[in-house]
Design a protein that fits this description.
Number of domains: 2
Helix content: 25-40%
CATH topology of the largest domain: TIM Barrel
Number of helices: 12
Distance between the termini: 50 Å
CATH class of the largest domain: Alpha Beta
Shape: elongated
Radius of gyration: 23 Å
CATH superfamily of the largest domain: Alanine racemase
Strand content: 25-35%
Length: about 425
């Protein structure tokens, strides 16, 4: 049984901060996402303090959870933002984020998105191809702006993670081969409106061993020093995100402070400003999904626990076969069963857990799906015309709705008959 640091049992009831999760469900219904502000702040501070006085910026990975309330919270803590679309830039600006702390990553930027970023005055672009770099030069010239850019280098570093979220090998669509990247930098010296200000990489997500990150960093430092020798004033060392969290017993939990200290041991005295793009490692364990048991049934010895949350609310188990601990909100002395925990969506792939040993819960009982702060609500959909659940931010014993529950009217508000 694994819980995030901000969620614990008190006299047999699961609490978040100073609030019983049962009370959250009674007030807001289920399914519902619930986040701990204290956990988010602690995780962010652990990264930030580890850098000490070394120049750095933590650019929160917006794709992990883009709810405006989450972006506002992190922006007020001093975070920058790593975005991958014009829509994410719009969200950051709506949340009051500083456009000068925005890094635009992503493999398929459009001319419109580039223009929006240039007008907003973002910090820099992480460029995925020479054609993209040429487009940024063209758009910047048209708008009479000057852009900063880093080439996203593919360091060909293998990392142990799910193949769908591994991004650092030559076989992936992301980045530019490190040999080719050096030539792109040198050719880019002719550009008048793009400054090649840094180097960047991102080798994957949910990585539990820091060794691959450090291997990639060593290759980036070698590249940056060669570029400096060629007359390019490279100053940003952008290592992306990807540091993993604990989803199940046996998972290690990398220490952000130790990771940062290992980075600093390599870059200290070299004149680099370090950029990181943490997402999951800040908010992953700070979120739970509350859901209520609707039915139990058995088909020839196969047990099913049917709950009111589904794959449209939490896609990771169906998409990746991802493991999330599922805990009873009220812990009672009961036998355990092995069951599939499934939702109401009309797909055989609609499950939150398969062949999971859990408490023998009954209809009406509340369950908490753990470690869903990242890539939970943000991957949600309205499949089967299901309204998306609310998102609630806990702050001690205060509850703040940062996304209300959708209504049936919300499902059709952009449609016409």
């Amino acid at each position: 049984m694994q819980m995030g640091d901000g969620f614990r049992y008190v006299k047999g009831e699961l609490w978040g901060e100073q609030t019983a999760l049962r009370r959250v469900a009674e007030r807001f219904g289920t399914p519902a996402y619930v986040y701990s502000r204290a956990m988010i702040e602690q995780k962010y501070d652990r990264f930030d303090r580890a850098f000490g006085r070394h120049p750095h910026m933590l650019c929160y990975s917006v794709k992990a959870n883009s709810t405006l309330g989450m972006l506002r919270l992190l922006g007020r803590m001093g975070a920058g933002f790593d975005i991958v679309s014009g829509g994410e830039l719009y969200r950051v600006l709506q949340a009051g984020g500083d456009s000068g702390k925005v890094v635009f990553s992503g493999v398929g930027k459009t001319a419109r998105e580039i223009d929006e970023a240039l007008r907003a005055g973002i910090l820099k672009f992480n460029v995925e191809s020479e054609a993209e770099l040429e487009l940024i030069e063209e758009r910047a010239a048209r708008l009479k702006r000057r852009a900063r850019a880093s080439v996203r280098v593919n360091p060909d570093v293998a990392a142990a993670t799910h193949p769908y979220i591994s991004t650092g090998l030559r076989s992936h669509k992301f980045g530019v081969d490190i040999v080719e990247a050096e030539q792109i930098y040198l050719r880019a010296r002719r550009f008048r409106h793009v400054e090649m200000a840094g180097v960047s990489c991102h080798i994957g997500s949910q990585i539990l061993d820091v060794a691959p990150f450090l291997e990639a960093l060593d290759r980036l430092i070698d590249l940056a020093e060669r570029l400096r020798g060629g007359g390019l004033a490279v100053r940003y060392m952008d290592l992306g995100g990807g540091l993993g969290v604990r989803y199940k017993p046996g998972d290690s939990r990398p220490d952000p402070a130790k990771y940062v200290r290992a980075i600093l041991s390599r870059v200290r005295g070299k004149g680099f400003t370090v950029l990181l793009a943490p997402g999951r490692s800040i908010i992953g364990e700070a979120g739970v999904l509350l859901t209520r048991v609707l039915y139990r049934k058995s088909n020839q010895g196969k047990n099913f626990v049917i709950v009111d949350a589904a794959m449209n609310d939490l896609l990771r188990p169906a998409l990746y076969g991802a493991h999330h601990d599922i805990l009873p909100v009220a812990r009672r002395r009961r036998q355990t069963i092995v069951a599939d925990v499934v939702g109401p969506v009309c797909e055989s792939g609609d499950f939150l857990a398969r062949d999971r040993r859990i408490s023998a819960v009954e209809p009406g009982d509340l369950l908490a799906v753990m470690t869903v702060g990242a890539y939970g609500s943000v991957l949600g959909s309205n499949y089967n015309s299901r309204p998306r659940p609310p998102e609630i931010l806990l702050d001690g014993n205060n509850l703040r709705v940062i996304r209300r529950r959708e209504t049936y009217a919300d499902l059709v508000r952009t449609e016409r008959v």
